[in-house]
Write a structure and sequence with these properties.
- The structure is a single chain.
- This protein is of the alpha/beta class.
- It has a domain of 200 residues: NAD(P)-binding Rossmann-like Domain (Rossmann fold).
- The strands form 3 sheets. Strands 3-2-1-4-5-6-10 form a 7-stranded parallel β-sheet, with helices on both faces. It has a 3-stranded mixed β-sheet with strand order 7-9-11. The chain has a two-stranded parallel sheet with strand order 8-12.
- Helix 8 packs across helix 10.
- The longest helix is centred in the N-terminal third of the chain and has 20 residues.
- The chain is globular, with a radius of gyration of 19 Å.
- The structure holds nicotinamide-adenine-dinucleotide and 2'deoxy-thymidine-5'-diphospho-alpha-D-glucose.
- The site of nicotinamide-adenine-dinucleotide has 31 residues, from helix 1, helix 4, strand 5 and strand 7.
Length: 338
């Protein structure tokens, strides 16, 4: 089979490319990735010859040409970081909305048999202390990032309803695992702790996130391709929920680092309080269940960041340092006890 993957040099996309070619070594994958700050060729080192990286922007490329002989598309490419969208949303609209529409249109013209759109639980907005989001929950995106993902998700719906184009949408919870950019919470906290740097917890760390290991997410995406129904949406959660503070404390305990590294810093504007997914539909229709328990997955992930010095060194290079100092070093609470 020949697949087209977008954003396959990023965190989830590169894990998916590895996952797929490990289990299906005779398949071919065309990977369109612009290699933004979040895309990293090192994420694909050692990937088998069945993979071709095409360094192009989905908002500009001739996408139909890249779809020659392709049977299925997995669309991961996006601007993915909420904090960056708060600073400047333009590129989020361009990539996440325009890029998605261009990809859908090219795939429709090419009569691609399956198009899997990787959406997110953030389209639903935030929950209070109780309840889970089902696939029918209303859209209430709160950050510019989430709003652009909601627009992409709705475009996918419109392509199914209007053209009967076989799109399937997945909405996963927070992913963790190897090759995640260190702007994101788990690798940020882990690599800071390993370097003896402060761990900047937003607000009081009371927000709740549901965490899925990226390998479980990849397995779910394969099940979506094999057994998902066109026009349907599948929540992909793990059931492992934790406050940010509890998670940071778990990281410190697993790394044997002191709690004194924690800093409570000024909160993210519009910070969603709680995400929790009802994933019963995916269990029932896809026959998929997550297999990796949070503490075991986290332990393996922390080991990966500890052992992959060269990857961490380059991911935390000059442009990251610039971003980090702008985002954190003057933030209220960060310099406390330094
Ligand atoms: P990431 O930021 O690590 O990777 C995004 C990739 O897309 C990068 O390789 C980047 O170079 C590429 N890209 C960005 N703009 C592009 C463009 N215009 N053209 C081509 N390539 C472009 O993101 P991720 O965390 O791997 O997320 C992948 C997808 O999964 C995104 O759509 C995201 O919204 C969704 N998602 C992520 C999570 C999570 O916890 N990380 C959870 C649910 C859904
Ligand atoms: O829920 C799915 C979403 O998960 C995806 O759609 C996004 O692409 C992905 O980035 C992620 O979004 P979050 O905003 O939840 O992830 P992030 O890693 O940025 O933050 C996780 C939580 O940790 C969130 O409540 C904010 C908090 N946080 C984050 C950072 C970077 C901190 O307390 N301190 C930090 O320095």
């Amino acid at each position: 089979m020949k697949l087209l993957v977008t954003g396959g040099a990023g965190f989830i996309g590169s894990n998916f490319v590895r996952y797929w070619l490990r289990d299906h070594p005779s398949d071919r994958i065309v990977n369109i990735d612009k290699l933004t700050y979040a895309g990293n060729r090192q994420n694909l080192e050692g990937v088998s010859p069945g993979h071709e990286l095409v360094c192009e922007d989905i908002a500009e490329a001739n996408l139909e040409e890249q779809m020659e002989g392709v049977e299925a598309v997995f669309h991961f490419a996006a601007e993915s970081h909420v904090d960056r969208s708060i600073d400047s949303a333009d590129v989020f609209v361009r990539t996440n909305v325009l890029g998605t529409q261009r990809l859908l249109e090219a795939a429709r013209r090419r009569r691609i048999a399956r198009f899997v759109l990787i959406s997110t639980d953030e389209v639903y907005g935030a929950l209070g202390d109780s309840g889970d989001f089902t696939e029918d929950a209303p859209f209430r995106p709160n950050s510019p990032y989430a709003a652009t993902k909601a627009a992409a998700d709705l475009l996918a719906r419109s392509y199914f309803k209007t053209y009967q184009f076989p799109v399937i949408v997945t909405r996963a919870c927070n992913n963790y695992g190897p090759y995640q950019h260190p702007e994101k919470m788990i690798p940020l906290m882990t690599t800071n702790a390993l370097n003896g740097l402060p761990l900047p917890v937003y607000g009081e760390g009371a927000q709740v996130r549901e965490w899925i290991h990226v390998e479980d997410h990849c397995r779910a995406l394969e099940a979506v391709l094999r057994r998902g129904r066109p026009g349907e949406v599948y929540n992909l959660g793990s059931g492992y929920r934790s406050t940010n503070l509890e998670l940071v404390q778990m990281i410190l305990r697993l790394l044997d680092k002191p709690a004194s590294l924690i800093r409570f810093v000024a909160d993210r504007p519009g910070h969603d309080f709680r995400y929790a997914l009802d994933s019963a539909k995916a269990h029932r229709e896809l026959g998929w269940e997550p297999q990796i328990a949070l503490e075991a997955g986290l332990e393996q992930t922390l080991r990966w960041y500890r052992d992959n010095h060269e990857w961490v060194r380059s991911a935390r290079g000059d442009s990251y340092q610039q971003y980090y100092s702008q985002m954190y070093e003057n933030r209220e609470g960060y310099r406390q006890n330094l």
